[in-house]
Structure formats: structure tokens, C-alpha cells
Amino acid sequence: MAACRLATSVVFCAAFAAARFMNLNEDYQAEVDIIGSGENTSILLLLTVNTKGYVGFGFGPNPNMTGADLFIGGVNNSMLYGKDYHGIGNTAPEEDCDTCQDWEVVTGVESDSGTSLVIQRLVNTLDTDGDIEIQNSTTYVLWSYGEFDIINHHRRRGFRELNLFTVDDPRPGSSTPNPN
Ligand code: HEM
């Protein structure tokens, strides 16, 4: 598993043994799992990004920042950080209120090959401060990363239209050569 090779913690591999792969960019790969049931259904993500700066992940009804439900986090001086944000336009996203912080940074590591973060939240947080329910349907997934841990702009960013409940891209290097 590509993400397991990058990540140094065995926890990453154990948690994501059955996860689906999501190829967002050559610099930004992710694995996704939907776990639990009913109101306790959660999304678990392993973000593996070619940066030592911040990592942004988001989703929403549009392929841009306005109205997007965003997470920004990373590893700075060996300390994990991460917060819930929402996009208000082509400007710095706003932090969700203190009682509306729904992403948990489960674990993470930064090395010379980049940053790997495991994050988790309920698919339906019921928060009205910028959160969107993650549904079994197509959405815009937004990704970004910064060169540093200063959250002032992105170094690269983009989006893909996909279903977080079903996306299952081929893993890099997994294609078998055609025997003919
Ligand atoms: C302080 C943080 C941020 C600032 C100041 C910022 C600012 C901007 C600006 C000015 C643009 C317009 C084009 C450009 O300059 O690239 C833009 C576009 C974009 N941003 Fe951000 N952004 C921030 C964080 C994020 C985060 C966390 C994400 C995703 C997780 C994100 C995703 C995007 C995407 C996908 C676009 C392209 C939208 C389009 O094509 O219309 N941004 N951002």
C-alpha cells in the first residue's frame, strides 16, 4: 500500500488495511474509509502529501472555496495541529466556532518525503457553522497544501468530483501488465 510505505507508523497501515485509494494529485494522495453506522458513521482519511507545510482537505457543492467545508492541519515542530474551517471565498477560510470543531487529528508524521495525517469526523456533524453532511453521492473534493505551516495561501490546490463513499482509484503501481 503506497501510503503505508510513506508513513512511518504501523498504526497507519493497520487503520487503513481495507481503505479505498483516492488519487487527488501526484503530490497529494489519500485513503478513505467510512466506518460505523447510523448517527455514529464517521469518515476516516489518511492524507499523504508531498509537503512539510500545511495540508488542506475539503468538500462541497462547488469546485471552489466558497461554501466549502474545510480541514487544515499538519505537523509543526513535531506537534500535530488541525482545525475545522469553512470557505468564504478566495481568501483565508474562517475557523468554525470552538464548539463546532469536528475533525480529530488521530495521528500524523512529517518526514523528508512529506506529511501523512490521519483525520476523522462524523459524516453528519449536525453543526450549522460551515459543516456539510458527507453523503453517498458525488461531491467536489478540494485539496491544497502550503509550503510552510503558515496558513496564508496555498502552494498548490485543486479539486476532483467524486463520491467519498465509493471512490476506489487504482493504487500507484498496482496495474498488472497485459499478458498479451
Ligand atoms: C489561508 C488559506 C487560503 C487562502 C488565502 C486561499 C486563497 C485562495 C485564492 C486567492 C484563490 C484564487 C486562485 C489562487 O490564487 O490560487 C483560491 C483558490 C482555490 N483554493 Fe484557496 N485559499 C486558502 C486555503 C484553501 C484550502 C484549505 C483549500 C482546500 C482544502 C483551498 C482550495 C482552493 C481551490 C480548490 C481553489 C481553486 C478554485 C477555483 O478554481 O475557482 N484553498 N484560494
Automatic annotation (TrEMBL):
InterPro entries: DBH-like, DOH_DOMON, DOMON_domain. CDD domains: DOMON_DOH (cd09631). SUPFAM superfamilies: CBD9-like. Residues 1-19 form the signal peptide. Keywords: Signal. It comes from the Eukaryota. SMART domains: DoH. Residues 26-146 form the DOMON domain. This is DOMON domain-containing protein. The lineage of its organism: Eukaryota, Metazoa, Ecdysozoa, Arthropoda, Hexapoda.
